[in-house]
Amino acid sequence: MEEILSKAKYWLSDVFDETTRKNTQHLIENDKKELEDSFYQDLAFGTGGMRGIMGIGSNRINKYTLGKNTQGVSNYLKAQFPKKEIKVAIAYDCRNNSKELAQIVANVFSANGIKVFIFSDLRPTPELSFAVKHLDCQCGIVLTASHNPPEYNGYKVYWEDGGQLVPPQDKEIVEVINSLDYNEIKFEAKEDLIEYIDLEVDQAFIEASLKNVNFQVSRKAKDDFKIVFTPLHGTSITLIPKVLEKAGFTNVFIVEEQAEPNGNFPTVKSPNPEEPDALKMALKLADEKQADMVIGTDPDSDRLGIAVRDNEGKMSLLNGNQTMVLMTDFLLKEYKAKYGFKGDEFIASTIVSTPMMEKLASHYGVECKLGLTGFKWIAKMIKDFPNQTFIGGGEESFGYMVGDFVRDKDAVTATLLACTIGAQAKEKDSSIFQELLELYKKHGVYQEKLISLVKKGISGAEEIQQMLSDLRNNTPTDFNGTKVIAFEDYQTSERTNLETDEKSTINIPQSNVLIFYLEDGTKVAARPSGTEPKIKFYVSTHHSLEDTSDYKVAKERLENKIDSVLSHFDF
Fold first, then answer.
1. In what order do the strands lie in the sheet with 252-254?
2. Can you tell me the distance from the alpha carbon of 74 to that of 4, in angstroms, rounded to the nearest whole number?
3. DSSP label at 69?
4. Strands 482-489 and 478-479
5. Angle, to 10 degrees, between the axis of helix 63-80 and the axis of helix 98-111?
6. pLDDT < 50 regions, the chain
7. 3-class SS at 266?
8. Each residue of 333-362: pLDDT tens digit?
9. Could you say which of 25, 167, 423, 543 is the most buried, measured as most Cβ atoms within 10 Å of its Cβ?
10. 146 is annotated as an active-site residue
11. Closest to 212 in 3D by CA, of 335, 109, 46
12. Apex 354 CA angle, 558 and 525, nearest 5
């Protein structure tokens, strides 16, 4: 505690403004628990940039932690591009304080002589990724905490290819940031270097989105297809209605109670389209309007949740894996019909997402590249293999990317793609749900489940590390009677065949991820969240499907199997 107190007392110095000093003193005198959590560590970059609770301290999002980040990024940019006019694009979402924090970030960049393009109002994260390349910038910043609770905010850094930071830039920039003191931050803006942007970039992004989802659907089919859309109080309200309208979808019903951007997210417990509760109001409206599809996006509009009518006419929520395989199969089928495969095409996913992506790749004769969690790794694949054609890719956590004009998950374009798939299916007297069943009949039913355990604070972080350490050092030989045949440790980059004791190297960057393969084809993964105080467990299993009418029985069998596997853990 002495070290924490010493760290906090530095925030009483004249390096910090009066309000910060006053609030720090209040914590020291009145709230030791909050003081400890606010200062016990420096907020770190995870799988989706830096996210944290807003407040005072080194473990919080505030003008000083973000100012220090931005000063470090500025120093690094100037070292990397000594002979260029350096340009940075900045966007922000609907969260409380996002606009003010974005302005502070813009001020620091400009104070360092860097040209800044900043959106004058909130915009989706994928548009920022697009803007970096469109405006020929070396870097991009978006202020967002995605689907985290209202008290959070965050800071994501993009590089000149439009993708988020990856090695070696990420570690190099963190080293520069960590070498700085707060008194080195330049906060005084050079106003002539700050330019506000909006409509020109909006239009370019919309045109690119429409170009990448340009598939044959009749005017009548688009008119007949009914869509309920909710932005969940987030940024997608600025673009998705326009994109759908320009694409010719006229039957769009917006959940008005959730249309207004609001960082408090007043109508939902969590603005997370992964959570069924988040789409309750949209599902209600869908039944009133007899809609074919519900789409909800998270606050920064990079992820989407989808519900469609099942074969009994009821709205059924799709999980992220199901949405991903539907979109990928559609893109592969359309690409094959339009161009034919030349042998250089690939799709992409993550090591904790459904193995059905690999099945699809094999079926179409294309490559499926797998990476760690986070779309920055898919963007890196595109960058690392410029002679290959990226068609589409996603991950289980409700994100998808269509083509490479955006180098991050993109709920705007994915929404258009989902509506296109749905309208095309309806036009041929099918449905998205039926199309999914047909895929399962062809490739087998894949069933997945994610368990997330929240472990807050210092003790929570220690508990997460202990749980992973126990799994790593005492490798299970079975999960409730089903034998483990292989084990992958991404921290040591080693795969072990437990039947032969043969070891091999995993050619994926190191990460604290463990994956177990069972003799019946089930896969179990464990990893700490890179954006929240959580440990996550993923289970995937599959079974053949003789006829689509057998789906319910097959699904129930697989769900029971997953529950049996998870009973191994003492949750």
1. 252-254, 227-230, 293-297, 304-309, 315-318
2. 29
3. H
4. antiparallel
5. 40
6. none
7. coil
8. 999 999 999 999 999 999 999 999 999 999
9. 423
10. yes
11. 335
12. 85
User: How distant, in Å, are the alpha carbons of 347, 381, 522 from that of 518?
Assistant: 26, 29, 5
Nearest Cα residue to 164 out of 320, 279, 49: 49
Q: 93 to each of 112, 146, 302, how far by Cα in Å?
A: 24, 9, 11
Strand-pair category, 194-197 with 115-119: parallel
What six digits make up the tokens of 548?
């689509």
Q: Which position has the token pair 């006229």?
A: 250
- Give how far Cα 225 sits from Cα of 279, 282, 306, 433, 545, Å: 19, 16, 15, 14, 29
pLDDT at 47: 63
Amino acid in the structure at residue 559: E
Both structure tokens of 353? 């997402």
Q: Could you give the domains of the chain?
A: 41-197 (3.40.120.10), 213-443 (3.40.120.10), 445-566 (3.30.310)
Single out the catalytic residue among 74, 98, 129, 146: 146
Q: How far is CA 321 from CA 24, 159, 179, 273, 385, in A?
A: 45, 28, 41, 13, 25
For residue 547, how many other CB atoms are within 10 A of its CB? 9
If you count DSSP H runs as helices and E runs as strands, how many of each does the chain have, helices first?
A: 18, 23
pLDDT for residue 46: 72
Task: Provide the pLDDT for residue 457.
Answer: 84
Alpha-carbon distance values, 554 to 545, 546, 558 (Å):
7, 10, 6
Which residue do the tokens 């360092």 mark? 112
Digit-coded pLDDT (tens) for 59-87: 999 999 999 999 999 999 999 999 899 99
Query: Residue 105 and residue 555: Cα distance in Å, rounded?
Result: 49
Q: Report pLDDT for 44.
A: 85
